[in-house]
Fold this sequence. Notes:
Radius of gyration: 23 Å
Bound molecules: S-adenosylmethionine
Strand order of the largest sheet: 2-3-1-4-8-7-5-6
Structural class: alpha/beta
Strand content: 15-25%
Order of helices and strands: EHEEHEHEHEEEHEHHEHEEHEHEE
CATH topology of the largest domain: Rossmann fold
Number of domains: 2
Low-confidence stretches: none
CATH class of the largest domain: Alpha Beta
Distance between the termini: 64 Å
CATH architecture of the largest domain: 3-Layer(aba) Sandwich
Oligomer: single chain
Amino acid sequence: MKTSKILVTCPKGIAPCLAQEIKDLGFAGPQESIAGVSVSGSITDTLRLNLHLRTGHHVLYRLKDFTCENPEQLYKEIYEIAWEEIIDKSGYVSVASSVDNPTIKNWQFANLKCKDAIVDRIYKAEGKRPDSGPLTDKTVIFLYWKYNSCSVYIDTSGESLAKRGYRRIPLDAPMQETLAAAVVLAANYHGDTNFINPMCGSGTLAIEAGLIALGKAPGLTRQNYGFMHLKGYNDAIWENLRKEARGKIQKTIGKKIIAGDINPEAIEAARINSRLAGVEKYIDFVVGDYRQTPLPNDKNIIMFNPGYGIRLQEAKKLELTYKEIGDFLKQKCAGSTGYIFSGNLSLLKKVGLKAGRKMIFFNGPIECRLCEYEIYQNASQ
Ligand SMILES: C[S@@+](CC[C@H](N)C(=O)[O-])C[C@H]1O[C@@H](n2cnc3c(N)ncnc32)[C@H](O)[C@@H]1O
């Protein structure tokens, strides 16, 4: 397939970080939008993006842009695409979409029209319809239809890239892997500082830090992608990209990654998850209160992700926790940079330290902040 627009989607707030990652992979002129970054490239380029990106969700390869007023026109335009060259007649296709058009009351109807056009076209050309349904682990087509402007993409990722494949034990309120990677990168962590994560839960932040420090492509742990189900998929190209990525993994990490949690079950889960991600031996796990986490005598990154307290009563209880984290940073972490990531902006006010930077992220619909605190030597005085 030829060069086309590639749109990489991401949660709101992450596009600048994603654009930087895409630039670092050698793509020219990435264009940022609210929840995505677009570049120009080939289907082979989508394989590289799927393998290496830490903060993207879906790598979409554009097939067609057109003006579309109604469902009949949608069917006609989509039927014109040579689907028999893209999807095997014995394959499986599912359609996902983002639709905002006055003639469509229910997005499922638009998906159905799109799916019908695809399978009817393949039937006409090949005498057999591929299966279709909601599963996203085979071929996924993405329809973007806003007012009268429509684009059809192949979702070369299939399932979201946030599902790295290493998190078997999620526990309570785990951070999405892509969000965790974006938060770690936003703290300017590249493996050349100690990374301390004293409330690690299932370990997502520490694991993403480990992958970053090692230079390990996050896609190496995942076995299935949408592009693998396309006609003409060349496994040799994918294997070469994987081999090249494996060759770039560092043998050691110069600095420490320390992950602690008061709950022994969390540490057990984090350990198992980190093993699946291939970073277990680079993380020191400790069970205990965060105030007991061993701190190297160095300029460390100390990152907290305490609970947000969705219910009012829980939030009330957490007020003291946030205040005490602030005290701990002030009294015990001089010379380091502290970070608190939270979706509760009122609780962040209880920390009692002035954030030098406040970065906005979204955890699903919840607006979150990553607050950065430079802790100076005389902060506790
Ligand atoms: C919101 S979760 C962290 C989620 C984590 N980022 C993940 O991706 O799984 C907060 C964690 O803080 C831990 N925690 C609560 N109080 C603590 C304390 N005093 N010391 C250490 N850990 C604590 C909880 O056990 C819980 O695992």
